[in-house]
Specification:
By secondary structure, the chain is mostly helical. The chain contains two helices and no strands.
Amino acid sequence: MKNKRAFTLMEILMVVTIIGLIAAIGVPVFLNAIQNSYTHAQNVNIAGVEAAKEQWALENNKTNGTSVVWSNISSYMSSSVTNLSSLTVNGTTITINKIGTPATY
């Protein structure tokens, strides 16, 4: 008598089913986490640009509606932000907008 041990078809089907259920739950959660991280990064970048715009406007006596370009606020940004394209999130670059109008993506 041979003592050959192997998995039955039912055991294999159960394992595949469990893996499928875990994937069905995990993949949407993971994709949602990625989207939330993009949104958070955009909000952080907008806050940084807005702070730089406000500081530049205060120091240079600018009022609402004054146009702002990157060269005006670049010195007020974090040292890790070297150019406007470094504020790109998920392929979308930030738009600075005028004083009094929030930056947008």
